Structure formats: structure tokens, C-alpha cells
Amino acid sequence: xxxxxxxxxxxxEEMLDYSRKLGKGCQNLMNAEKIDTGVTPKVxxxxxxxxxxYRYEAPADVVQNSVPTLIVYALVNRPYMTDLQENRSTxxxxxxxxxxxxxxxxxxxxxxxxxxxxxxxxxxxxxRCVDVIRKRHKLKKINILGICQGGSFSLCYTSLHPxxxxxxxxxxxxxxxxxxxxxxxxxxxxxxxxxxxxxIGNVPGExxxxxxxxxxxxSLTGQKYLSMVDVLEDEDKLKNFxxxxxxxxxxxxxxxxxxxxxxxxxxQNNGFLNGDVQIGGRTIDLKNxxxxxxxxxxxxxxxxxxxxxxxxxDLTGTKDYTELSFPGGHIGIYVSGKAQKQVPPAIGKWxxxxx
Amino acid sequence: MSDSTFWNxxxxxxxxxxxxxxxxxxxxxxxxxxxxxxxxxxAMEHWWQGVAPGTTDFNQDFMNKMMAQSKSFFRMAxxxxxxxxESQSWLDAANRTINDLQQMFSGSLENLFSxxxxxxxxxxxxxxxxxxxxxxxxxxxxxxxxLVPGDLLRNMPHNDGMERFLSAPGLGYMREEEGQxxxxxxxxxxxxxALTEYMRFFSNLGMLSANRLREKVQQxxxxxxxxxxxxxxxxxxxxxxxxxxxxxxxxxxxxxxxGKLVNALMAMKQKLSHLVDESLGGLNMPTRRELRTLQxxxxxxxxxxxxxxxxxxxxxxxxxELRKPVPEKSKxxxxxxxxxxxxxxxxxxKKVATKGGKS
Lengths: 355, 359
Fold this sequence. Notes:
Chain A is an alpha/beta fold. Chain A has helices at residues 8-31, 90-96, 118-137, 149-160, 183-188, 193-200, 205-213, 217-227, 229-232, 235-249, 256-268, 271-274, 306-310, 332-335, 337-352; strands at residues 42-48, 51-56, 69-72, 83-85, 88-89, 101-105, 142-147, 165-171, 278-279, 282-283, 293-298, 321-326. In chain A, helix 3 (118-137) packs across helix 4.
């Protein structure tokens, strides 16, 4: 049998169909209104420098867990990924699962924020947000849900402040930064990070975009746009795509000193495993984490491979450790329909069983 | 928008032209003459040039990406179409198409590295957009980091003669300044060399991808499966390339090439910043170095200020706690306890006194 069954008339028809869709799609694209993101109503409860702490409004008919959950997102990209649109919102589904949800928005650091260190972020901003929530709810401890780099920050925080964390959830969080399948880590090993930060100060979002797109350049910067022709005709699908596109390229610059420490201590020296990371003059020892831990990872994660997350299993001091795997990728875990049905309800159930 | 003549007429004209092109291609493929080079691509480019000015920046960028991919897609379909018309068997057609893909990539790179006139940008821009992605992404990123467009540094001469010239010591009154500029040039040359090495790595990858595509086509034959659309062929091509790319960029060799490229860019930019600072200092203007010193000091002060503020808040809370009137009930229960157990009170006092003494 021949591997190709491409007749000339068939090819011409396919190309014509493609052009037809493209023409109609362009019309839709030009008529597309402003892309809205972050759909669940929220109120700002605390502000410091560029940081904002939000509390999401829960549906009136849902009984809320008495212990609130603070979402700590990565410094890379924007946290509205957790609340992208009505039918794709981890936040909305956590609220529906009876959780009282707070979220830290780190903002867009500029050159004046270059000297912010991991100590400033973790023992400063993050700790003050936790204190604000504890005070509002008159609680000694709250739940923390750390996502990606925010998960690594949450691990550091819980190790340093175990008395303030009731339950810890880590989502797609890198713990072992040197698993053999970690492409980002492989690339980071030969970079002279000191020279980079001394030279450019903050790390531009463009540099991060380039790095992430370079992980799968042909799919992420090519095939994706060809596939788009199929959804251009559908206004809703087009909007969904544009929302995602906006998020992907909405990359804040990274405060230079924090980036320097994060890459050196974690990507180059695998700090959680080596146990030699110092933040604010104190050593990060994951054995200090004795609260219940739920570790969620994505099975097809190309940014944080499953093994990089699963390494947490043997490192903490908790007796209550749970793992939850999701059959999807790093982004799909927040936005796919399947994830919406599985992940937030599982988090809600796990938290309710422990509070 | 939808009522404009563009949508009602121009688009249809483009479509008509498109059909004509296909008919022409069919005629030529069946007949004797060679079809014109990428007529569909030209038609699409013409159409997009008319539309682009009316779009927003965000949409334009998005559409540019889509157009680039569409052009690659069309070129690939055309390539297959021509080869199918000229070949006696599917194997021959498939091999010719794969060879075309490979040549389009490595041929452009050969031009690029041959030092021919108008090589470099021209060659790369004519190269299939598909293969240009890794470089294109890099150039965009470089442009965002420097005063000059990323493309500008791509074609700098970097031969031995240039290096010998740059390593010659400076002379006379301006020797220090001359030395600084020579260092900048040396770093630019090092960057150019690193970029060349980076691009060569991808040239090799193009050939490996073509071989992988060939293997995948053979696998289809073995499995008794067929590709029945140009899109199917394109997807197979993407997956072949992505697979090979994924394997190659995980090698220590690539990590080194990547590291060298980033480090060379940073070294060059560092020298440039230093020279800019020197010039600004000469003009009695604030420099980046001074600004950073101020930022560091300011951040240190803010850290101290925030720590003191937190300490004050804590002390204030403790004071308020101490000032709180003791509830009557508690007072009376304390009094009755004291009356009932006078001996224990004495012990307690002693303990407090001991603790107080230690502190």
C-alpha cells in the first residue's frame, strides 16, 4: 500500500478549504473584542508595593471550609491562568468545592525591584500575606496551595514557618531539579547566571518566553498556528485561543536577585535534595514540613517532569503525604475540561478531610 | 468590517487567483512545464499585505505567525504535488519531497555560511518559516535585550584576521579607550561565533529530521496506513522534527552550545553597558552602575524599615494585651485561688523571679 493518498483535486480542495477558513477567521479575528481574563469576582484585601492579595467571592449556596487556602503562583507568567475563563477556572471550582480562596498576584517587577531576593519574597511578602489572612480569620494556621515555582516557594515557606501552615498543596512543583528528562535544567547548567544578572539586572519576560518556546519550537511556534485555522471560524473557540495566547506572552520580568538565587540554588545545585539552600540566614530543610502534604503533578508535563515533582515523597517530615497525578500537561492541569472536573474537587475533598 | 469591499470582493478575487494557480499547477504537473515558484504563497502574501494595516498589533502579530505557517504548509503541499506529478512511484515522490524539505533547510544554511553576498538574512528569511523558528525566536529575544536589532549581529565578520587585529595592543594617549572598544568587538566576535555554532547545530538537526520523516513514512507502509491530507503530511513532519529536536537538545553538546550563546551575548552586553556608563559619566549624567547602587541601598533600607514596622506592630499588640483590663470573674477566681492555696503562690513567685533573673 502507498503511504500517501493525496490526489491533486483532493489537495486543491484541502487548500481551498484552508483558505476559506482563514478568510472567515480573519474576519472574526478583527472583530474580536478585548480579551478578558480573571473572571471570578474578587476583592483586594492587602497591597504592598506591586503585590496584591485577593480574596475570591464564594457562591452563596456553598458551605465554606473554615480554614482559607492561599494560592501562591509562580513569578513567571500571570496568576490569572488559575481563573482564565468561566468554564476553565481552578479558582471557581475550588470555591464550588467549598474552599475559601485567596491568591497572591506578584505584579510586574521593574528595575527598581531588581534587588528583591527570595528572602524578600518568602519571608517578606508571602509571610505578610499569610499573616493578613490569619488575622482576618483569627487562625494560627492556613492552607497553602503553591503552583509551579510558587510551589517551590511554598515548600521553602512551610519549612521556615511550619507553625503557620495547616495543609500544604503543591501543584506541578519542581523539587528534584536534575531529573534526566528536565530540559530546562539541562540548559541552565552552562549558563553563567552571575554574569547574566550582573549584566541585565532583571530578567526580561522575552528571555523566558524564548526559553519556554524553545522546549518545543515546532509545535509551540508553528503547528499551533496552523491548527488555529480550524477554530478561527468559531468565535468562542477563537476567544479561548486568544486568551491562552495572551497568557503565554504576558510574561513579567523577573527580579534579578531572586532569579539568580533560584537558578543557582535550585536548577544548578538542586537545593531541595542537597539541603543547602539558605533563605534569610536559615537553611531550608524539608523535614521541617510535618503538616499534611498533597502533591499534584501532570503526567505529560514538559516543564516540570513528573519525577521532578514526585521527588517530594521522601523529603518531607510529614506522616500524611498524598500524591495525585493528572493525565495532562503543565498548563492543561489548570485549564482542561478534564482537569476542571478532577483536580479542584480532589483538592477540596482532601482539605475537608483534614480540617 | 464585514461589509467592506475587501471581504466581499478582494477575498473572492484572491480565492479565484488561488484556484487559477492550482489549475495552472495541475496543468504543468501533468504536462511538461515546471510550475511557477510558490504561486499560492505569493497570492497569500499579496492578500495579507492588504489586510495587515487594518488589524491591531496583537492580532497582526498573531496573524503573521499564522501566515508564516500557512506559507510553509502551502509550500510543502506544492512540493509534494510537483513531485507526485513528476515521479513514477510513491516512493520516488516521497523521497523527492523529503529531499526538498531537507534542501530548503540545509541549502539556506549553506548560503548563510558561505559568506556569499546577501547571504544571512536573505537566505534565512527565504528559508521555510518552519525551520526558522528557533533562530527567529532567538533574534526577537536578542532585539529586546539590546540597542541594536538582533539581526544586525548575525552577519558580523569573525575570521582569524579580525581577531588578530582586535588583539593587537593599543598605542598612545587613547590606548585605554581603544582597548575597551576592542574588547567590545572581541566579545561581539565571540558572540557571532557562538551564534554560528548554534545555527550549525540546527542545520544538522534538519537532516536528522528528514531521515526521521523517511522512517516514519516507511513505518506507515509497514503498518498498512495512509496519509490522506496535506495536513497529515505536515503533522508527520512536525512530529519528526520535534522528536529529533527533543533528543538533540538534551545532549551535553547542546547544553554547551546554548550556554556559550547566552554567555557570549551577556558578555557583549555587559561590555556595552560599561562603555555606555563611561560615556554617561563623561557627560556628568547618572549611570546604570550608580542607579543600581542606589537601588541596592534603598532595598536594604526598605527591608530594615519593614522589619522594624513588623516589630512595632507586634509590640503594640503585646502592649494592648497587657493593658486589657482583667475580667472581674477572673480577678475573683484568682483571688479565691490565692486565698485557698497560699503556699503555691509563693512557689510561683519564686519561679517568676528565677526566670526574670536569668533573662
